[in-house]
Amino acid sequence: MDISNTETIPGKSIVSYYGLVSGSTVRAKHVGRDIMASFKNIVGGELKGYTELLQESRTEALDRMIAQAKSVGANAVVNVRFSTSSVAQGAAELFAYGTAVQVQ
After folding, report:
1. 87-101: b (≥16 Cβ within 10 Å) or e
2. pLDDT for 45 beyond 90
3. Looking at the predicted structure, is the pLDDT value of residue 9 above 70?
4. Residue 66, exposed/middle/buried by CB under 10 A (0-12, 13-18, 19+)?
5. Backbone angles phi, psi at 82, to 5 degrees
6. What is the assigned CATH class of domain 2-103?
7. Residue 67, Cα to own-chain centre: how many angstroms?
8. What is the distance between the alpha carbons of residues 104 and 16, in angstroms, rounded to a whole number?
């Protein structure tokens, strides 16, 4: 599956459009990560626990988007974007979306 954040896949032609596909995941913060993040807020630096959580969330949302694209017969997704939103106190949704297409 070819994935691109541009309108095309370089070196390939789009022959069919299947429409919008998406994938999402909702994740809550982990108490242990919150405690470590509190310490980091005092001294500064990267919040590695949250970085890992966001990376896992992006991967899961992207995998779900790809599965939806495959289910409609696409072999590529163009114009891929990510969005986040707060769902509840301490929980956020990560949403991946794009246009499913067939390329040659």
Report:
1. eeeeebbbbbbbbbb
2. no
3. yes
4. buried
5. -120, 145
6. alpha beta
7. 13
8. 10
